[in-house]
């Protein structure tokens, strides 16, 4: 409230009152809508609402009518052809991560772009296989269909109609992908795409880096052509490495040399593409070039017969019939499905956000979930596997001039041509070449190790999250590692709020700005006033920490002072009855040598009595606890006002509310005025609902700012003794001097009133 001062106004009382809160609450109740009102609004239908629903569910209906054929079509065609070539190769390569024949990767590269064309909101990402997701699907497949038989080099050459073992793997991969899509679709329909916010950038970076290491290790058996059994339990990566090194002498040199040459050339050309990206019209399609050369060399020199290398094998033209998912394995793979659904959305939305910011168009996270979910459902139904988007493939689509998802449609047509017409040309291609191409796409993820140093300099908590996520994922595997990483990340949030960095504030340069005392040199702290700031929510887990930090800041325990004063007061009453106290005009004189607090143990009833407010109404004199006779020993405190800055306190739970009220009562009972500043209306309204206020803790303790509270304390302590000199009013302003005469500030201040506000 505003207190009048002469013809002007001065901030002299709190800005909140209980009556104001009650009136505002009643006003809200009058305008409160019932559940039926909301239901009527949701169920009502109009032409505009129907159009909005259609456009939100089918984003293509909003941008296709505005498509600029003359300006965009040629760019989309060029981009689609380039992206389609990459999609074919990545589909074949990433199928190896799923531990199924490479041909099924083409299905995973064909269906998602078509579905995303109709339902996606990003104009530039390329939907399809992603190595990390392929690895996660492969983990589930290996767990459900372990390689129990001894594999031979010929067993790697299974065609699309291969052995029953491969057929079983295909069914499991399709089932996992289909139910991952169902989870994504459900999350999108329920509008809870916000779950991705629990995956921070540090967590995603650490997880994808560790997953890239898993991919690297899993591809070694194809590069070296070794018989390595699948492992899916914790420490599986170390078991795979042990199996590889124990039979390293059986390495197929032809596969190893071919893979190393491919890797070297791919890395070099990718660096050239990155270095000269501004000068090249399109990136050099090195994966396509190396695939054509490797296929031709393998076919011309008959590597399969001469060097016993593992090749792609028979690629039957056309599509396989849809597969029936195995519902019986759902209970065993539901955790994998949920992890795949979340990671797929997190990766796709992160990449899409980059391009949406670059090209300035909106994204809808829930619609992205629907698009990805439908894509994975269709892909799983037709024997594909779960996908998202690959950064390298999306980079090709955007950098080659792609304007819309028409480029994605063209890329799907390229994949379709390979499936139905020219797939047989890839039959002589070595699997080690596909493995090398898969590793070539991991460079960006493996380079994320550099994030450790950057995060350590910027935020050590984020750095620890990155490192622990990497360790969890490496040791526990992708599924358990992701779950443990999310739990650890949430634990760090609890840790940060449970142990906040509380601080003591002071005035900077006699202004209305208050900052941490440790950060500035020219600081002024009013005498007898302590300003304490808590930078986090206050709840059951940190209320004790808050109390201890507050005690450390003020330099004494208010409950201890209260108990000692009540003990001394009890002895004073006893001495008064014995006639050992003599009342004087200034107080009293004690004839006993020394009165001091004793350290005897008290029972619970006695402690409850000592914790009650100090009552001296029955005494014929007033007690000034800081000016007692020398022979009465009681702790003295110089603090008379405490300001709690709660501007960063977003919520307060019921448990901490009781603790906070207890803290306020302890200070108030020892004659320390407490003020709370910076809270919003909802915070105080909750306190009112929970009956926080009483005769001791009143709603008048709240102020808008720290400066308002300080001015209130100044006026309360020194108003009666202040001398106002040189008063002069001019243009609605009044300048004068406050001389505190040894009071709160012990100095003179120039004060200027501007109509309704006061500044010092």
UniProtKB/TrEMBL annotation:
GO BP term (any one): intracellular pH elevation
Regions that span the bilayer: 77-98, 104-121, 170-190, 196-217, 253-270, 282-301, 337-357, 406-426, 464-495
Subcellular location: Membrane
Keyword line: Membrane, Transmembrane, Transmembrane helix
Gene3D superfamilies xrefs: STAS domain
Topology relative to the membrane: Multi-pass membrane protein
NCBIfam families linked: sulP
CDD domains linked to this entry: STAS_SulP_like_sulfate_transporter
Organism encoding this protein: Saimiri boliviensis boliviensis
Main location class: membrane
GO molecular-function terms, A-Z: chloride:bicarbonate antiporter activity; secondary active sulfate transmembrane transporter activity
Keyword hit for Transmembrane: yes
Annotated protein name in UniProt: Solute carrier family 26 member 3
Gene Ontology CC terms, in alphabetical order: plasma membrane; sperm midpiece
Family: Belongs to the SLC26A/SulP transporter (TC 2.A.53) family.
InterPro entries: S04_transporter_CS, SLC26A/SulP_dom, SLC26A/SulP_fam, STAS_dom, STAS_dom_sf
Chain ranges of the STAS domain: 519-713
Keyword Membrane assigned: yes
